[in-house]
Amino acid sequence: YERQDGKPFRQRLLVVANRLPVSAVRRGEDSWSLEISAGGLVTALLGVKEFEARWIGWAGVNVPDDVGQKALTKALAEKRCIPVFLDEEIVHQYYNGYCNNILWPLFHYLGLPQEDRLATTRSFQSQFAAYKKANQMFADVVNKHYEDGDVVWCHDYHLMFLPKCLKEYNSEMKVGWFLHTPFPSSEIHRTLPSRSELLRSVLAADLVGFHTYDYARHFVSACTRILGLEGTPEGVEDQGRLTRVAAFPIGIDSERFIRALDTLPVQDHIRELTERFKGRKVMLGVDRLDMIKGIPQKILAFEKFLEENLSWRDRVVLLQIAVPTRTDVPEYQKLTSQVHEIVGRINGRFGSLSAVPIHHLDRSLDFHALCALYAITDVALVTSLRDGMNLVSYEFVACQDAKKGVLILSEFAGAAQSLGAGAILVNPWNITEVAASIAQALNMSAEEREKRHKHNFAHVTSHTAQEWAETFVSELNDTVVEAQLRTRQ
Ligand code: ADQ
């Protein structure tokens, strides 16, 4: 494409996600301070030069007054962000309720909430109504800002109802939807009371993407078994209209991590950490504190390893960095206490006055500290019970070109499909197997470590986040063109 001024044409990309990539703090009646959070999606899209991305989402704060909303909208516009204002009740029902209490556990095979069936059914209905209402509010904002030729990319399980709402506004809109979590087996999805409505809404999109081929296959079979539609190699067909379904495995901005390793702050951290853990092998876990990440199971496996390997007791340390999330949800509070209790017990059992086997931090680390930790680690432990992809495993590999440490990786993380040949794959529920893998990793020869690392490093550096975003959006453009050609024939 060429513009009249000779500069390359950049297609507008409207990225719609539950949360905007900013944290907003109100400083006064009409003033806000904003900080961009450099998550995976932001870096992925910043690297894509073909598109001019705009973000649409909730800013994570309740702004009930007009003055505040206007000021925040203005401040966000400078960061190419457009807010969707959700009130507290909607956030409670849609986000905490339907998204985090129902869809998140279900998609990770943890089932539907069961405490009180009757109450669950009643709250389920009001939460689903709030979910649809919230999705409609996102659609209203997208529609207001949409211009002909834009591409609309909807993200994640929060917005499964959005493709349908958007197409009702404008059937010509190019709409893609991508799921960051697993899509479970159709037998699991069948248990969801709103199973059909959600599938139909997603199918309104032109392109539907998942991290792995398995998730895409589960989605297609849910559509065939629950809706009775036809699954084809391209996707799902309904009365002659095809929704393209495919796998688009995400990656990271590997260069950002590799470059950071040579910077002064990271080198300082590396020196400090190397001195601190001199004489001990370092094992590392970095997770959001969430039940899907399998943190208690991981720590219990480490305990079993210490029980069975006396000679390693003073020579190994596990650093578990677990950033708290969804702290207002009781299950997450329970999980925090459970993890603290297990860590305390193991440190009491195997620690000495001078050292403890587990260092557990309940917080987020800044980028430089995180890179340094990845770089000095001997064995990374990623033991998610289910995980859409898991980017921590990618980040670890990117930072390991000097050390060539070992990655122990859950076979239930999407990353197992891409890093499986270089990692030691484990079933995180099998604590005996994970303990044996820790021993295998710590005793692995340098040649084998190098061979495994080389495989994973080549993958991580060649399948980047930028490439992921580019592939999805160009596939979406192509899908729409093909559909137009089909209707003309
Ligand atoms: P998450 O469940 O958040 O993402 P993950 O892919 O591992 O999981 O990404 C976590 C990110 O947060 C990483 O970039 C990591 O560096 C950072 N992080 C985690 N703990 C941290 C800590 N203590 N301090 C600092 N940073 C920390 C969801 C899905 C995944 C999928 C991604 C992307 O659940 O399966 O891979 O989206 O699609």
Automatic annotation (TrEMBL):
One of its GO terms (cellular component) is nucleus. Its EC number is 2.4.1.15. Keywords: Glycosyltransferase, Transferase. Signal peptide: none annotated. GO terms for biological process: cell division; developmental vegetative growth; embryo development ending in seed dormancy; long-day photoperiodism, flowering; plant-type cell wall biogenesis; root development; sugar mediated signaling pathway; trehalose biosynthetic process. One of its GO terms (molecular function) is alpha,alpha-trehalose-phosphate synthase (UDP-forming) activity. In the N-terminal section; belongs to the glycosyltransferase 20 family. In the C-terminal section; belongs to the trehalose phosphatase family. This is alpha,alpha-trehalose-phosphate synthase (UDP-forming). It comes from Juglans regia. The lineage of its organism: Eukaryota, Viridiplantae, Streptophyta, Embryophyta, Tracheophyta. The chain holds residues 89 to 577 of 934 of the full protein.
